[in-house]
Each structure stands twice: as structure tokens, then as C-alpha cells.
TrEMBL record:
Any Gene Ontology biological process: tricarboxylic acid cycle
Active site: 270, 327
Keywords for this protein: Transferase, Tricarboxylic acid cycle
Annotated protein name in UniProt: Citrate synthase
NCBIfam families attached to this UniProt entry: cit_synth_I, PRK05614.1
Pathway participation: Carbohydrate metabolism; tricarboxylic acid cycle; isocitrate from oxaloacetate: step 1/2
UniProt family annotation: Belongs to the citrate synthase family.
An MF annotation (GO) of this entry: citrate synthase activity
Keyword Transferase attached: yes
Signal peptide: none
InterPro entries, A to Z: Citrate_synth-like_lrg_a-sub, Citrate_synth-like_sm_a-sub, Citrate_synthase, Citrate_synthase_AS, Citrate_synthase_bac-typ, Citrate_synthase_sf, Citrate_synthase_typ-I
Pfam families (alphabetical): Citrate_synt
CDD domains in the record: EcCS_like
């Protein structure tokens, strides 16, 4: 017998038990392993949060040092990966490049494919945590037309990412603590969000026992879409368009409410939050701080604030409980940092990496069965075959 009911978009279907991230969408609460997102964003750094998500506890100094040094050992990629990167046109979208390169890593790290024991999982995890930032930085350098650069193992995890992204040829690189802080915070805020589209993808691909890198590559593809991680790029493009249009926010509010118009207010609404997205609150304050500290006055920030005010006071948005989400202000910070718009979703992927890894590891350790939903068949009944010359 087949199933008789369906739940499109799995709006009310639990796919697993999980001990990683707690989310209360009515109250706007988000916790990783029991710790509030507000406190983690304020007091922890990204690598500590990655450890917490993956292994369940905040690391001691010694545990964190060992983790970091294991990761650093793998912060290189095979030279042939450079050739694959070279073969992409410069106009390729960085998310497509990133998912391809992540998948390609499988070929160069065959021992990371069939992982069953905790030790094999650990080795695959530190490998990808080492290599992924290199791929991220290189996709950006390709967009910017800069020669590829390896990091510096004496630097912190996030400092090293910034150096790999921004180091100019023939120039000393100096760390800007404002950028380090801002990126650390953004990555922490993006690090996990329970069973969202990309995470569910990672778990379901991994449930067939495809390897970690293949599962992550699928997750990156899922994140790419504008209804999910791609919203941060779409928000900035929308704000730019409004600016070009003379700052006419009312017109875009009208379009968003018009059911005949496919336009949606990007960066607004969420499947689970029916209240403020706690990440958006933190990011809004950070956007003000970072732009202030960097001495940047971006008219886009004013447009975003204006749009938010209008939406929060508009019946359509109030009735549907549509609030700004994590993607609404993050792009403004990335832009202030000098990151190109088409790279924004790659930055989201960089932040989400520990979340995907922890969810994949939990799924494997719990020995979850292969993910295989059912359907309600609504096609043709049995019918006789018709010969090609009689159709
Ligand atoms: N602008 C205008 N109307 C909206 C919006 C929006 N951004 N979001 C939802 N609605 C309306 C929607 O038309 C529907 O109206 P009605 O009940 O009259 O048919 C109602 O609100 C409920 O929306 P839904 O599409 O049924 O809700 P969903 O849970 O399927 O979709 C969402 C959630 C995030 C995909 C959606 O709100 C959306 O498309 N937002 C814009 C894209 C975006 O910002 N995505 C980022 C999500 S947060 C982090 C991440 O995943 O990256």
C-alpha cells in the first residue's frame, strides 16, 4: 500500500531526531548545542563554534589547538584542482565553481570517500575544513582576476581565510581586526540552522553513504537557490535596483504584495521564524558597526532600513508574519568588506560548512536509514502501448 497524504515542502514533517541546533520560530530563539546564538556571536570564535557543533561540547584550549593543527595540515589542494579552476570561464557563478571543486576533491582524496569509523570521519572532516577555505578564497580571486594565494599557517582560521582572499600580489598583507571580527561573527551566525533545504540535502545524500565531500557538494547546490542562501545576493541586487530607481521603496513593496507579480521582497520571510530572525537582529547592529568602523557610508544601508520599516508596518507583511531574515543585512557587510556580490552565497557556504558536517556526522553515527520519501501517484492509469505510427 502507498501513502495517501503528502506534505509539500515538508512543512510539517520531522525527518530526524537531532541534538545540534534548537530553533523556536515563534519566539525567535536559536541555540547551537544549547548555547544562545547571541552569546556565541559575542564570545566565541568561528573555529570554536565549528568544534562545538561537530563534537557537541565547547573545546578546551588543548582540544582547539589539536583541532586547528589537524586542519592546517590539510590547508592545501592538489595542483590539478587549480587546473580545473582555470578551466572555468571567468563569468562562471562562484557557487557552481565551488560545488564542482568540492566534488572534485573526492578524486584527490579517495580515503575520504568510504568513511565509516569515527576516526575516518574525523580525518575527512579536518581535510575539508582545511581545503574548503582555500577553494572559497580561490573562487573569489578568480572573480577578481587575482593570482591564487595559499594561506599562512601561523594565522588564526578566519584571519587566514581573509589573507587568502585579499592578499594583493607584491604587497605585504596586514590584518584588519575589524574585518576579522565581522567575518567571525557572520560565519558563526550562519554555522547551522537545523533541517533547512541544504542541510536536509546533505543528510539525504549522505544517507546513501555517498562520501562527505559529495554530500557537501550537493548541499552547496541546494544553498545556491535564491529562496535559500542565494537570497543574500538577491537582496543586494534588489537594493541596487531600488537605488537605481531613485530609491522608490514603495514601488517594490507594491510589487512584493502583488500576487500577479513573481517579485518577492528578498531577505524577508522564513519557513520557521514567524518572529524576528535572531540572526538578522545581530547582523543589523553589526552592519552599522562595521560600516562605521570602516568609514563607509553606503546609501544601500539606508534603503534597507527604510524598506524594513515599511514592511514591519505593512498589513500584508504583518498578517503573514514576514520579518527580515539572516540574508537581509549580511550582504551590506560583505560589500563593505570588499567582497563581490556574486560571492555572497559562497560566504554563506563557508559559514554553513561546520553545520553540514555536524549534521552529516550525526546522521551517520545514529545509523539513520537511507532517506527515501514516498509519493501519491496522480498519473495515468494502466493503458495499452500505442505503436509509433499510430500516435
Ligand atoms: N515577499 C512577499 N511575500 C512573501 C514573501 C516575501 N519575501 N515571503 C513569503 N511571502 C508570502 C507568500 O506569498 C505567502 O502568501 P499567501 O499566504 O498569500 O500565499 C505567504 O507569505 C507565506 O509564504 P510561503 O511562500 O508559503 O512560505 P514558505 O515557508 O514556503 O517560504 C521563504 C519561505 C523563505 C522561501 C519565503 O519567505 C521567501 O521566498 N522569501 C524570500 C527569499 C529569502 O529571503 N530567502 C531566505 C530565507 S532565510 C535563510 C536562508 O534559507 O537562506
Amino acid at each position: 500500500g502507498g501513502v495517501t497524504t503528502i506534505d509539500p515542502g515538508y512543512k510539517n514533517t520531522g525527518s530526524c531526531e537531532s541534538g545540534i541546533t534548537f530553533l523556536d520560530g515563534e519566539k525567535g530563539i536559536l541555540r547551537y548545542r544549547g548555547y544562545s546564538i547571541e552569546e556565541l556571536a559575542e564570545k566565541a570564535d568561528f573555529l570554536e563554534v565549528a568544534y562545538l557543533l561537530i563534537f557537541g561540547e565547547l573545546p578546551t584550549t588543548e582540544q582547539l589547538d589539536t583541532f586547528h593543527s589537524d586542519i592546517k595540515k590539510h590547508a592545501v589542494v592538489d595542483d590539478d584542482v587549480k587546473k580545473i579552476l582555470d578551466a572555468f570561464p571567468k563569468t562562471a557563478h562562484p557557487m557552481g565553481v565551488l560545488s564542482s571543486l568540492t566534488s572534485a576533491l573526492t578524486a584527490f582524496n579517495p580515503t575520504s570517500v568510504n568513511v565509516d569509523s569515527e576516526e575516518e570521519m574525523y580525518n575527512a572532516i579536518v581535510r575539508i575544513l582545511g581545503k574548503f577555505p582555500v577553494l572559497v578564497a580561490w573562487t573569489m580571486r578568480k572573480v577578481k582576476g587575482l593570482p591564487l594565494d595559499y594561506g599562512d599557517s601561523s594565522l588564526g582560521y578566519v584571519e587566514n581565510i581573509l589573507k587568502m582572499m585579499f592578499k594583493q600580489p607584491n604587497e605585504e598583507y596586514t590584518q584588519n581586526p575589524i574585518l576579522v571580527n565581522a567575518l567571525d561573527k557572520l560565519l558563526i551566525l550562519h554555522a547551522d540552522h537545523e533541517q533547512n533545504c541544504s542541510t536536509s540535502t546533505v543528510r539525504i545524500v549522505g544517507s546513501s553513504h555517498a562520501g562527505l565531500f559529495a554530500s557537501l557538494s550537493a548541499g552547496i547546490s541546494a544553498l545556491w537557490g535564491p529562496l535559500h542562501g542565494g537570497a543574500n545576493q538577491a537582496v543586494l541586487e534588489m537594493l541596487e535596483a531600488i537605488k537605481e530607481d531613485g530609491g522608490d521603496t514603495k514601488k517594490y513593496m507594491g510589487k512584493a504584495k502583488d500576487k500577479e507579480d513573481p517579485f518577492r521582497l528578498m531577505g524577508f520571510g522564513h519557513r520557521v521564524y514567524k518572529n524576528f530572525d535572531p540572526r538578522a537582529k545581530i547582523i543589523k547592529v553589526a552592519a552599522d558597526e562595521v560600516l562605521g568602523d570602516l568609514g563607509i557610508e553606503d546609501p544601500i544601508l539606508e534603503i534597507a532600513k527604510g524598506l524594513e520599516q515599511e514592511a514591519l508596518n505593512d498589513d500584508y507583511f504583518v498578517k503573514r508574519k514576514l520579518y527580515p531574515n539572516v540574508d537581509f543585512y549580511s550582504g551590506i557587510i560583505y560589500r563593505g568588506m570588499g567582497i563581490p556580490t556574486e560571492m555572497f552565497t559562497v560566504m554563506f557556504a563557508l559559514g554553513r560548512l561546520p553545520g553540514w558536517i555536524s549534521q552529516w556526522r550525526e546522521m551517520r553515527l545514529r545509523k539513520e536509514p537511507i532517506g527515501r520519501p514516498r509519493q501519491v501517484y496522480v498519473g495515468e492509469n494502466h493503458r495499452p502501448f500505442v505503436d509509433i505510427n499510430k500516435r
